[in-house]
């Protein structure tokens, strides 16, 4: 691994890309409005996390004291997309990166982290909370005793992460046809880093009080919706949703604050809806995404958008953030289909039944 100093970073490219914004004729027909897909699944790590985590990694490198010659080593606590984004960003910039994951993490995910360039993947604890605690209290101090400079990368709760995610809105403003602005943006919510960044980006481009935002969670990972319902930050007892990438038992305080704006409407869907959207989206757009992303994509199907946006018109412009995700395979998607197909059909009927042209 190449060791680089902060002075080397002046010409370093950012560890994320400007992703396409595509208008989907298929989903527009199904949703009854103009649907634009922000394809964050095309980021280097396979998810939107490349923006926020990548920005935090880059910022951490640039803030290092040039007189400190210890080699940098980045550490994340995530068995999902945040860990993969940390490893991808750090290794692309020439640094080591390791990840502490819960002991329940499957071998397939661990091998993906190693394939992305992880120096070490350390299983510890039965949840992200304990993995993160072990990282901060044992792993990083241990690395520093051996002469490294350990840099802690939080999965979602850091202003640099929100700033990185906010660059998505800069993209969208430049990419919308004829200089138009969207009427609404739909995004998935776990810990709230993406959502907080979107709100920050909307403010920066002058759309903060003009664009509706629909943050979407799955039932069983709905810490934001429950917090708003109780008007206080809620810590879930555990995560029961299959969309484990949304599995933050407590949403970031800043995200909770942003969600109280009048332009924000929270949405909670069942696992069956999120998983159904995954296999339908694969049929309709040829992209394979995990249920955490399917939660947002689900709003394009079966009249859900019209249910949450009462003023939806055929010319309304809605951007759905296709956040991507690595925790999916064709075998797993087929298992979801066997498990949830009947329930997804039942739920679709609650929004007015099967929409003509639906692939489900």
TrEMBL record:
Cofactors required: pyridoxal 5'-phosphate
GO BP field: gluconeogenesis; isoleucine biosynthetic process; L-serine catabolic process; L-threonine catabolic process
Keyword Iron belongs to the record: no
Pathway membership, UniProt: Carbohydrate biosynthesis; gluconeogenesis
CDD domains with a match to the protein in the record: L-Ser-dehyd (cd06448)
Pfam families in UniProt: PALP
Principal subcellular localisation of the protein: cytoplasm
Tryptophan synthase beta chain-like PALP domain span: 17-324
Enzyme class (EC, first level): lyase
InterPro entries per record: Ser/Thr_Dehydratase, Ser/Thr_deHydtase_PyrdxlP-BS, TrpB-like_PALP, TrpB-like_PALP_sf
Known EC number: 4.3.1.17
Keyword line: Cytoplasm, Gluconeogenesis, Lyase, Pyridoxal phosphate
GO molecular function, one term: L-serine ammonia-lyase activity
Catalyses which reaction(s): L-serine = pyruvate + NH4(+)
Subcellular location, record wording: Cytoplasm
Annotated GO CC locations: cytoplasm
Family to which this protein belongs: Belongs to the serine/threonine dehydratase family.
Name of the featured protein: L-serine ammonia-lyase
Source species of the chain: Capronia epimyces CBS 606.96
Lineage, uppermost ranks: Eukaryota, Fungi, Dikarya, Ascomycota, Pezizomycotina
């Amino acid at each position: 691994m190449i060791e680089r100093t902060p002075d080397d970073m002046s010409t370093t490219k950012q560890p994320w890309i400007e992703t396409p914004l595509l208008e989907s004729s298929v989903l527009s027909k199904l949703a009854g409005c103009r649907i634009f897909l922000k394809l964050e699944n095309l980021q280097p790590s396979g998810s939107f996390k490349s923006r926020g985590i990548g920005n935090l990694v880059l910022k951490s490198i640039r803030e290092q004291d040039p007189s400190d010659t210890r080699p940098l080593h980045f550490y994340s606590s995530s068995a999902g997309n945040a860990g993969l984004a940390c490893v991808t960003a750090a290794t692309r910039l020439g640094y080591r990166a390791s990840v502490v994951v819960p002991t329940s993490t499957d071998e397939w995910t661990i091998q993906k982290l190693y394939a992305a360039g992880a120096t070490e993947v350390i299983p510890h604890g039965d949840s992200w909370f304990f993995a993160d605690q072990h990282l901060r209290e044992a792993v990083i101090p241990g690395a520093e005793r051996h002469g490294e400079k350990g840099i802690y990368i939080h999965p979602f709760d850091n202003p640099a992460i929100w700033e990185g995610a906010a660059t998505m809105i800069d993209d969208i403003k430049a990419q919308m046809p004829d200089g138009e602005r969207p009427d609404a943006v739909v995004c998935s919510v776990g810990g709230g880093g993406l959502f907080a960044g979107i709100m920050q980006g909307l403010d920066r481009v002058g759309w903060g009080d003009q664009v509706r935002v629909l943050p979407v969670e799955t039932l069983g990972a709905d810490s934001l919706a429950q917090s708003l319902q109780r008007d206080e930050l809620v810590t879930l007892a555990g995560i029961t949703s299959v969309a484990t990438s949304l599995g933050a038992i407590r949403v970031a305080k800043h995200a909770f604050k942003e969600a109280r704006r009048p332009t924000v409407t929270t949405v909670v869907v069942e696992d069956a809806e999120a998983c159904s959207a995954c296999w339908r989206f694969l049929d309709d757009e040829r992209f394979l995404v995990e249920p955490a992303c399917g939660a947002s994509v689900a709003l394009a199907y079966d009249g859900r958008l019209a249910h949450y946006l009462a003023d939806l018109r055929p010319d309304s412009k809605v951007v759905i953030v296709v956040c991507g995700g690595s925790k999916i395979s064709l075998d797993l998607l087929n298992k979801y289909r066997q498990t949830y197909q009947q329930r997804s059909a039942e739920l679709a009927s609650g929004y007015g039944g099967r929409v003509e042209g639906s692939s489900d």
